[in-house]
Specification:
The protein contains 3 helices and no strands. By secondary structure, the protein is mainly α. The protein has one domain. This is Large ribosomal subunit protein uL29.
């Protein structure tokens, strides 16, 4: 997800998106532990998206 897309979201939408991404990351990491994934880069992308959302939420709360 691009940073410009996240900036346009409201605080509630960011919280919901973060929750959804964390759930998806949990499912994918569990699947990866059972059997190796074809695209392991997806785990890193999800983690980076979560970090972007957290950073943006912190920036918005400071303002």
């Amino acid at each position: 997800m691009k940073y410009s897309e996240l900036v346009k979201m409201s605080a509630e939408e960011l919280v919901k998106k973060e929750k959804d991404l964390r759930e998806e990351l949990g499912k994918i990491t569990f699947q990866h532990k059972i059997r190796p994934l074809e695209n392991t880069a997806l785990i890193g992308l999800l983690r980076k998206d979560i970090a972007r959302i957290c950073t943006l939420r912190n920036q918005k709360s400071e303002q």
